[in-house]
Amino acid sequence: MANGQIRADVKPGLQVNVILKNDQRSGVKTAGIVKDLLTNSPKHPHGIKVRLEDGQVGRVCDILSS
Questions:
Q1: Which tens digits make up the pLDDT trace of 23-36?
Q2: Do residues 5 and 45 touch, judged by C-beta distance below 8 A?
Q3: How far is residue 11 CA from its own chain's centroid?
């Protein structure tokens, strides 16, 4: 299971867990399917920022499917 810090590992259509902006303090994870990648840098220490198919935006903490 990849941790979502490397942009090349995160692709549209993958099932991932993200931490939403509102949940950063609590660390609550939200599952979803990646629609768009919002981080342009090749890696990010807090996880690549993505938009899920339901419109929520968060940073990837776990990649569930490949």
A1: 999 999 999 999 99
A2: yes
A3: 10
Q: Which of 11, 10, 28 is nearest to 19 (CA)?
A: 28
Three-class HEC string of the chain: CCCCCEHHHCCCCCEEEEEEHHHCCCCCEEEEEEEEECCCCCECCCCCEEEECCCCEEEEEEECCC
Nearest CA-CA partner of 66 in 18, 9, 19, 17? 9
In sequence order, the 6+-apart residues with CB closer than 8 A to the CB of 37 are 7, 10, 11, 12, 48, 49, 50
Using one digit for the tens of pLDDT, what is the confidence trace for 7-54? 999 999 999 999 999 999 999 999 999 999 999 999 999 999 999 999
